[in-house]
Amino acid sequence: MTETKDNTAAEFFLQPVKPKIKHDWYQTESQVVITILLKNAPKDKVKVNYGEKSLSITSAIPDSDSEYSLELDLAHEIEPCMCSHVVSPSKIEVKLRKKEGLRWTTLEGERGEVKVKAIPQAVIDASGPQKPPKIFRKDWDKIEKDINKMEAEEKPEGDAALNALFQKIYGEGSDEVRKAMNKSFVESGGTVLSTNWDQVAKDKVEMKPPDGVEFKKWD
């Protein structure tokens, strides 16, 4: 009897731990997108079944004898023939086409809804059964280029314009120009900025405070 209990306990602790696989979701006006963070899922062993208000996803788990399974009773109806899924090395992404233009407050169970602009039936019919709508994605490279262009076109004024000029001179200048600017600025306590290395290299650059300003050294 004791031996049987010990063997049962040993089998329990030696069983492989089933990995925890997270899933999340977001929505657009016409779609609900579910992301399953299962890495390297074998495409030929990923099965997705769409019902009008249900979703079933199963997949073999790499390097494991276990199988991943997700069964959902959806909060609202979908168009099964217009749904799709994509398997990538990092995840499984399932795109559900909403039957109505509703803002889902929850993925499962009908616990409330927020009415938004409905999708015209003509749009659904024109899309075709196998053509899910495109999801708008921001082109971050274009946005960055536009920002850089705007910054380049901005014309600074006053101190900002002066600083911009110094930065341009420093950035486009030769090594001797940079050395002259660095040496004169540091040795003069920020009161002199010279680009003439031949002149600056000879002696220490003295401080030249603006007219009416007296320089005092703090101990």
Protein topology:
Layout: H1 2-14, E1 23-27, E2 31-36, E3 46-50, E4 54-60, E5 67-73, E6 84-87, E7 92-97, E8 102-104, E9 113-115, H2 121-127, H3 140-153, H4 158-172, H5 175-187, H6 197-200
Antiparallel strand pairs: 1-2, 2-7, 3-4, 4-5, 6-7, 8-9
Verbal overview:
The protein is α+β, with helices and mostly antiparallel strands and 219 residues long. It has 2 domains: 126 residues, Immunoglobulin-like; 60 residues, no CATH class. Helices cover 30% and strands 21% of the residues. It is built from 6 helices and 9 strands. The strands form 3 sheets. Strands 1-2-7-6 form a 4-stranded antiparallel sheet, with no helix packed on it. A 3-stranded antiparallel sheet has the order 3-4-5, with no helix packed on it. The protein has a two-stranded antiparallel ribbon with strand order 8-9. Strand 8 and strand 9 form a beta hairpin. The longest helix has 15 residues. It is elongated. 11% of the residues are buried. About 3% of the residues have low confidence.
* Fraction of helical residues: 25-40%
Structural class: alpha+beta
By CATH, the architecture of the largest domain is named Sandwich
Number of helices: 6
Order of helices and strands: HEEEEEEEEEHHHHH
What's the Cα radius of gyration? 33 Å
Q: What's the total number of strands? A: 9
Query: How much strand content do the residues show?
Result: 15-25%
Q: What is the makeup of the main sheet?
A: 4 strands, antiparallel
Average of the residue pLDDT scores? 75
Shape: elongated
- What topology, given as strand order, has the largest sheet? 1-2-7-6
Low-confidence stretches are: 111-117
